[in-house]
Design brief:
Layout lengths: L7 H39 L5 H106 L16 H13 L3 H14 L6 H14 L3 H14 L6 H14 L3 H14 L4 H17 L2 H7 L1
Length: 308
């Protein structure tokens, strides 16, 4: 398939063909112009001697006019051929530039496609790793559920508690009991979760997750609208498990619960105390946002008109 672009060799061929055409045209024109002159010359030779001078002058005049006309035609033709040559060269250069730009664009697109393919492969690898981690977590959760079911079945098959046996002898392992309570809490089974967290505090009150269990008891009460009970549960976290990882969250939710009960001043004091104790925590950010909302609501036009 021929290339759609014009090369310099093709331009030179066109120019040479045009030159050949010019010479052919000039040759034919010269032939047509010289025939009358030759005829006139033959007539002149047959004329008497007294008419020679006049005829020579006329013939010379015609020859000079013909030469001038040929010179003008030659100049016009050369000028047109020069313009055509320049146009052909400019067109060739432009087409070559377009070809270079297209090749550069194709190279860039190819590189971008390669980079995109590499990124897609990287993301696919990360997604696969996440799927593997999720499968591992599911396997661990299924294992815990199996252990819990086995323990429940064992409890049902055990005889009544013998005298002198401690209550912890019938309690499930702490991780099983805590995870079971957390699972039921996330599923919205608040009554079952509350019983499981209370059992955890009853049997394992000295473990690291005891403060978490107490906090979730407050969360269950808060979600059920029992704000006073939630405040009591949060206070227990702050008093007995102040060094645990739920202390800041318990103080935040205590402030929210006080606000829900209409105790604005007490709630604001609790949130400000949280900000002072844990200034860089996520709970402090939430407390600042709640205080900002309270201030904005207090200074809004509708609130001022209501107070007036």
């Amino acid at each position: 398939m021929r290339s759609p672009f014009l090369t310099r060799a093709s331009a030179r061929g066109i120019f040479y063909n045009a030159q050949t055409l010019r010479f052919g045209i000039l040759k034919r024109m010269k032939t047509k112009r010289l025939l009358p002159l030759l005829a006139a010359l033959m007539v002149w030779c047959a004329l008497p001697a007294f008419g020679v001078s006049k005829e020579i002058i006329q013939l010379q005049t015609q020859v000079q006019a013909l030469q001038d006309q040929m010179a003008r035609m030659q100049q016009s033709f050369d000028e047109r051929m020069g313009v055509m040559k320049n146009l052909i060269e400019q067109t060739t250069d432009n087409m070559n530039k377009v070809t270079g730009a297209v090749n550069s664009l194709q190279k860039t697109l190819s590189q971008q496609n390669s980079d995109m393919s590499a990124k897609v492969d990287q993301v696919s690898t990360q997604v696969q790793a996440l799927h593997d981690s999720l499968d591992e977590l599911r396997a661990r959760l299924n294992k815990l559920n199996t252990q819990l079911d086995q323990f429940t079945a064992q409890q049902q098959n055990l005889p009544a508690q013998t005298p002198g046996a401690g209550p912890a002898a019938q309690a499930p392992p702490p991780d099983v009991l805590y995870n079971s309570g957390l699972r039921d809490y996330n599923s919205g089974k608040y009554d079952i979760a509350s019983q499981e967290f209370n059992d955890y505090l009853k049997f394992y009150s000295n473990t690291d997750l005891a403060g978490n269990a107490q906090f979730y008891l407050g969360e269950i009460a808060y979600r059920q609208g029992n704000f006073q009970g939630a405040i009591q549960a949060y206070d227990t976290v702050l008093q007995q498990y102040a060094g645990g990882n739920k202390a800041a969250a318990a103080q935040l939710k205590k402030g929210f619960a006080l606000l829900e009960l209409g105790q604005r001043d007490a709630g604001v004091r609790e949130l400000n105390s949280l900000i002072a104790r844990y200034p860089r925590s996520v709970e402090a950010t939430q407390a600042r946002e709640r205080l900002r909302q309270l201030t904005s609501r207090k200074t809004s036009p509708s609130h001022r008109s209501a107070n007036q």
